[in-house]
């Protein structure tokens, strides 16, 4: 009878997501700021996409890259946050086997796609500031199409094995102590050896995100060097303000990932709810800030939003 019970547990089609196992009572309170951040992220990115789509003056490569970033942010938010809020509000902790690994794939691939998009946008700014005369011939619509294909193909193909490897494991338990189906949270429930699974994610994660970050830092280093040579009054301050805010946002994106790795490695000394909260916020704060820092602070975008509002009113 006991063996039959164990077998049914292994074959159970659903996982159970237990958010903040030590703080179940205050989940409803946490749902309020998360809901506001979710609405801000969705609203800001949707506004940016609609503005760029409707305004002919914004049909340029730089704004197409912004659209790509907003699209990635929307997909990431929709993949993670509605399920988290459903757990908080309706105690809907069950997630299907296939749905869990689909969520894992989207999170891994789209987070690295976002990092790669930051890298392409940093290259765009490098060409615009360091090689302004060559900008129209280098950053073209065809360049954006090729860049989008590269972003999707590189990160989609290289992160695909992560959920595939996890889905092939035999599971002895189905209670995930997390709000989302991260690879490590799910894989450690397995009866099998997960060393290769962990190693692959570690190597691919650091290879993709690390190479992107190195290229971003190099691009902004060249930009800073070029900007400091500009003699026009106010030009240096304006360029530093724009590029500085971009670079800080990128560093925030990368730092949160680093903190997640550290908290997982030192999980014995850090409360388990800390990495869970960081995981959720990493799918909310960058999507909420990206359209504001990259879009609304840009004069042409602001003018496009005003034009759109005038037409609607």
Describe the protein.
With 313 residues, this protein is an all-alpha fold. It is built from 13 helices and three strands. It has a single domain, classed as Rhodopsin 7-helix transmembrane proteins (Rhopdopsin 7-helix transmembrane proteins). 76% of the residues lie in helices and 3% in strands. The chain has a three-stranded mixed sheet with strand order 2-1-3. The relative contact order is 0.15. Residues 1-12 have low confidence and may be disordered.
SS class: mainly alpha
Q: What order do the strands of the largest sheet run in, or round the barrel if closed? A: 2-1-3
**CATH architectural category:** Up-down Bundle
Beta-strand percent range: under 5%
- Cα-atom radius of gyration: 22 Å
Give the class-level CATH name.
Mainly Alpha
Give me the CATH fold name: Rhopdopsin 7-helix transmembrane proteins
- The CATH homologous superfamily corresponds to Rhodopsin 7-helix transmembrane proteins
Overall, the morphology is: globular
Domain G-protein coupled receptors family 1 profile: 44-294
Protein name: Olfactory receptor Olfr683
Membrane topology: Multi-pass membrane protein
Transmembrane segments: 30-51, 63-89, 101-123, 143-164, 199-223, 235-262, 274-296
């Amino acid at each position: 009878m006991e063996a039959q019970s164990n077998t049914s547990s292994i074959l159970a089609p659903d996982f159970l997501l237990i958010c903040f196992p030590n703080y179940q009572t205050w989940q409803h309170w946490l749902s309020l700021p998360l809901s506001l951040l979710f609405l801000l992220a969705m609203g800001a990115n949707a506004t940016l996409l609609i503005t760029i789509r409707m305004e002919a003056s914004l049909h340029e490569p730089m704004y197409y890259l912004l659209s790509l970033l907003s699209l990635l942010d929307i997909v990431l938010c929709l993949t993670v946050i509605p399920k988290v809020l459903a757990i908080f509000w309706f105690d809907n902790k069950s997630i299907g086997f296939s749905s869990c690994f689909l969520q894992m794939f989207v999170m891994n691939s789209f987070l690295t796609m976002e990092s790669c998009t930051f890298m392409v946008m940093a290259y765009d700014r490098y060409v615009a500031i360091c090689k302004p005369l060559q900008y129209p011939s280098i950053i073209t619509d065809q360049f954006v199409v090729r860049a989008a294909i590269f972003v999707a193909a590189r990160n989609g193909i290289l992160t695909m094995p992560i959920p595939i490897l996890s889905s092939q494991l035999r599971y002895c338990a189905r209670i995930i102590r997390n709000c989302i189906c991260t690879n490590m949270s799910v894989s450690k429930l397995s009866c099998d050896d997960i060393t290769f699974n962990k190693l692959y994610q570690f190597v691919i994660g650091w290879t993709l995100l690390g190479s992107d970050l190195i290229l971003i830092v190099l691009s902004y280093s060249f930009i800073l060097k070029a900007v400091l040579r500009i003699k026009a009054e106010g030009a240096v301050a304006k360029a530093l303000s724009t590029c500085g805010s971009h670079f800080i946002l990128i560093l925030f994106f990368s730092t949160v990932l680093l903190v997640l790795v550290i908290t997982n490695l030192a999980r014995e000394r850090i409360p388990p709810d800390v990495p869970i909260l960081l995981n959720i916020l990493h799918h909310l704060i960058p999507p909420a800030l990206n359209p504001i820092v990259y879009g609304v602070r840009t004069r042409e975008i602001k003018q496009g939003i005003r034009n759109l509002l005038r037409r609607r009113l």
